[in-house]
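INTERNAL AUDIT FORM
Audit reference: QA-55
Scope: verify that the stored structure record matches its stored sequence.
Auditor: D.O.
Record contents follow.
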Amino acid sequence: MPRKKATTITTAAAVRLAELDRVNAETRKLLAEALIAEATARKATAEAKDAEIRSYETQLELAKRQSSDDRNFLYRFSKDVSHVSVTSCISSLTQWHREDPECSMEIVFSSPGGSIVDGMELFDFIQHLRNEGHKITTGTLGYAASMAGILLQAGDVRWMGHQAWVMIHRAAFGAIGKTFEIEDEVRYVKRIEDRILDVFTSRSHLSKLKIKRNWDRKDWWISSDEALELGLVDEVRAIMPEHDSKPKATKKSGSKKK
């Protein structure tokens, strides 16, 4: 009889142990599933944050591109006028023309001038773009001297910073060779000067005689206020707020050539 009772107790204990093992196994399983779910959630959260960061970076990069000079069709010509600088400018203008055949473009000069032949290539190309329907704005910050001053005249609208200057002078050249070769060079330069005079007189209130008197044997430096009065620019921009008596952007008034 005692043996039978002991056997019954042992069997009941085994059942309870088995049940305990089953509960422990299920608990471990649930714990493992919870850990997996937590890890999955952390991964999803990390991926969401990464996606948010990538989206922000993409939007920031897009905003930078959209706000860049290039995307707003603005070219800053801040070098000497040369084959290299003119080719670079024409390349950008050509690209914008192909991207948007109706876009407005702006060229801001801060240049001491340079090659007349290369500069006239850019001048003619700007006229080509105007004839194709583009509105071209030309401006200067700092100064537009010599050939750069001529290029300032190429735009539909021309403007100067209030502290900027335009400089006009006669064409310069260096001739080496026989007398007739030098004489030929002089005649060529004089013909170039006639073209330059045509540009200035067609875009300003100035007469050829007025220009010749002011540029003969010297550099003629013209302030923004003087350039506006002479009709060499249409607007003066970037006027100090303290200049209450002057409008921020003053347009030229018509007057006869002098």
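Auditor finding: record pair retrieved intact. Strands lie at 74-77, 105-111, 136-145, 157-161, 165-168, 220-223, 235-237, 250-251.
Action required: none
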